[in-house]
Amino acid sequence: MTKVIGERAPRPAPAGRIGVLVLGMHRSGTSALSRVLSLLGSDLPKTLMGASPTNEAGHWESSTIMRLNDEILASAGSNWHDWLAFNKGWHDSPKAPEFKERALAAVAEEFGNSRLFVLKDPRICRFAPFWLDVLETADVRPAVIIPVRNPLEVAASLHKRDGMEPGLGHLLWLRHVLEAEAGTRGLPRFHTSYDALLHGWPRLISATQKELGLSWPRLSDLVNEEIGTFLTERLRHHHEAPKSVSDNPLLSAWLRETFEIFSRWAEEGETAADQIVLDRIRAELDAAAPAFARLVSAGQQSAKKAKSLEEDLKEQQAKLEELAAEHSVLVDAKGAMDQQLAEAQTALSASQAAIADRDEEIAQATKRLAEARAELADMQAKVETLRSELDETKGQLSHTQSALAQRSAEADEATEQLTETRARLAERSDEVTALNNALRNKEAEAAVAIERVRAEKQDAERRLSERFNEIAVMTRLLGEREQAARLSEEQAAWLRDVSAVLMNGSTPETLKGRLAALLPASIRLKKQKAQLKKKGIFDPDAYLVAYPDVAEAGIDPLWHYINHGMGEGRQRG
Question: Are 369 and 450 contacting, i.e. CB atoms less than 8 angstroms apart?
Answer without folding.
Answer: no
